[in-house]
Design brief:
By secondary structure, this protein is α+β, with helices and mostly antiparallel strands. Helix content is 60%, strand content 11%. The protein has helices at residues 2-26, 75-107, 117-148, 163-193, 198-207; strands spanning 31-33, 44-48, 52-57, 61-66, 159-161.
Length: 219
């Protein structure tokens, strides 16, 4: 019963992480304009995302524009786009495999032998997806913090951590937690199905008339 509860919990974590990954990729609030020193222009907020940049005026009017040329983008931004797109696709596949794994596990045998191979596949995919999300989000956050405290960077170019980064970090944590749960289930099932005392199991098999190797068979 506890395993079923944890499997459902992992499925919920994976689903929320999948939605959060999609939201983080689409949100423009990766970099947000910072108001430091003498920069008191607070009626206008600049958002910079993976696909567009936006200008919010007093929280009432919002103007967004997609980037004109893909080739003119900085190489890190192109890499972050690719990683997030792969992460979104992989998160969907992971979630579907988790659904199939939980379904077949509950339909199959009771105990550790009933855990489906899809559980292991979903766990590995969730771990990989969480790592893919963590790379661009953490890299962007580190560059924002580095530029913020760099005195050589002009004040108008300083940025703060946007909401999309926090969504990405939270989604990555949920995906990694879901992957760890499913991999733990599989390891537990693989260990539980092995005989604890192999010699005793072989002796019982010999007493039952099964194939057992004698001492002279190894010579």
């Amino acid at each position: 019963m506890a395993c079923c509860v944890l499997q459902i919990t992992g499925l919920i974590f994976g689903g929320v992480g999948m939605v959060g990954t999609l939201a983080a990729m689409a949100m423009p609030q990766w970099r947000v304009s910072a108001y430091v020193d003498g920069n008191i222009v607070v009626f206008e907020t600049i958002w910079e995302g993976l696909w567009m940049d936006c200008i919010s005026q007093l929280g009432i009017r919002l103007q967004c524009k997609f980037y004109d040329s893909v080739l003119a983008l900085p190489p890190p931004l192109e890499a972050f786009r690719a990683l997030m797109c792969i992460a979104v696709g992989l998160s969907i596949v992971s979630f579907l495999m988790a659904i199939v794994g939980v379904k077949y596990t509950q339909r199959g045998k009771e105990g550790p032998q009933g855990i489906s191979i899809f559980i292991l596949a979903a766990g590995i995919a969730f771990l990989l997806t969480g790592s893919l999300v963590l790379i661009p989000v953490s890299w962007t956050g580190g560059s924002i913090i580095r530029d913020f405290y760099d005195p050589d960077v002009p004040v108008p170019l300083k940025r703060e951590l946007g909401a999309a980064l926090y969504v990405g970090w939270g989604s990555s944590a949920l995906l990694l937690a879901a992957g760890a749960m499913y991999c733990h289930f599989w390891c537990w099932a693989d260990t539980a199905t092995r005989p604890r005392y192999p010699l005793l199991a072989r002796a019982r098999l010999a007493q039952a008339g099964g194939p057992a190797l004698g001492v002279h068979a190894y010579v």
